[in-house]
Amino acid sequence: MSRTWNQYIVKQENKALVLNTIIEETPISRAKVAQVTGLNKGTVSSLVSELIDNHFVTESGPGASSGGRRPVMLLFNQTAGFTIALDLGVGYIDAALTDLTGSIITKKHMKLHERQFNKVFTYIVDVINNLIEAMPKSPYGLVGIGIGVPGVVNHNGEILLAPNLNWKNIHLEHALHDVFNVPVIVENEANAAAYGEMRFGFKTPPEHMLYLSIGMGIGMGMVLDKTLYTGLNGFAGEMGHITVVKDGINCRCGNTGCFERYASEQALLEQAIKRGLVSGNEEMSVDLLIEKAQANHQEVIQLFKEIGQYIAIGITTMVNLFNPEQILIGNQLSKLSPWIKEDINYYVFRHAIGFHSKRVTVDFTSPEHLSTIKGMASFAIEKFLLSIKEVE
């Protein structure tokens, strides 16, 4: 019994190895798969046949020959199933339907004027249903849902605290699974964005990267040794709630003087209102302030630079703590890059410990890059592909 079980486990692991090789090298011949994996050609041929039967792999026309008969090429069937990935922000939902490579098929954007969970959940379900209606037919259909949220999420997908949404102890993963009956992953949006950038943002991913998500709040995702680091319970990276001003402004987390009260979208908009930088008939937004800055509104530009100084202080702390090679600034305040990037880099170079600052690069990635969505799609795809070990 034990020997039979061990043989089964080895076979399933070999099948996963063959599939991963085809995914990474597609198109690829059977002979090349054997060469890359170290498995013999008979084993590879048998496993490939199973993968074709399971709809994970398809065959294409013959490839180039190095002598002799031209080989039949193998392709990963990226439309064998689809995922739906969402980025839930304060005031919006971004969502996308992706194939099994993470390529976006179609996407949706919805503005939110509600924060009460039951109402927001209804909107989430509506967006997912709209994307399901747009999903092409496939062998596996919808294989998973991933949603990134701005808050503290444990390993069970429970949102323990999302201060800017006024949410506590929300079982979002269970609620979505009950509606759609597919695997659901809930993760902190900054963690998802960091993973999405590592997977899709670089030709050669950095080994040590920090992603600073600056929206209504501030979060940080950490890639250390090319692995997403989330800490003991999944709570690492709450950069927005480090104290930067003693006895400072009250924060929704219950503390005072938190980083995000001085360097976030919320801080920017509050200061803009306080300083009278918009007229009564204008709807306050980051985009409106950017329009004014582009028109050379000096008070708005000065406010951008003040917010940038606080961002620079936080980034300098990150550099000194983690010694990364890459820091990416994303989410809504990444749009301020033309006015703050140079000052931030100068501040970090001047104030980070010298041997830390010499190799670090600070860049901005736009919200249109959909970093969180790409990360959540990756999580859902990887969870589904692990099931290859269970497919007979």
Give a topology summary:
Blueprint (H helix, E strand, L loop, with lengths): L1 H24 L2 E2 H8 L3 H13 L3 E6 L9 E5 L5 E8 L2 E7 L5 E8 L5 H17 L8 E8 L2 E2 L5 E4 L4 E4 L1 H9 L3 E5 H12 L7 E7 L3 E7 L2 E3 L30 H4 L1 H10 L11 H9 L3 H25 L3 E5 L6 H15 L2 H4 L3 E4 L6 H15 L7
Helix pairs in contact: 1-2, 1-3, 2-3, 6-13, 8-10, 9-10, 10-11
Number of strands: 16
| CATH domain fold name of the largest domain | Nucleotidyltransferase, domain 5
Q: What is the CATH homology-level superfamily of the largest domain?
A: ATPase, nucleotide binding domain
What structural category do the secondary elements indicate? Answer: alpha/beta
Separation of the first and last Cα atoms: 18 Å
Biggest sheet details = 5 strands, mixed
Overall spatial form: globular
Report the top-level CATH class of the largest domain. Answer: Alpha Beta
Helix content: 40-55%
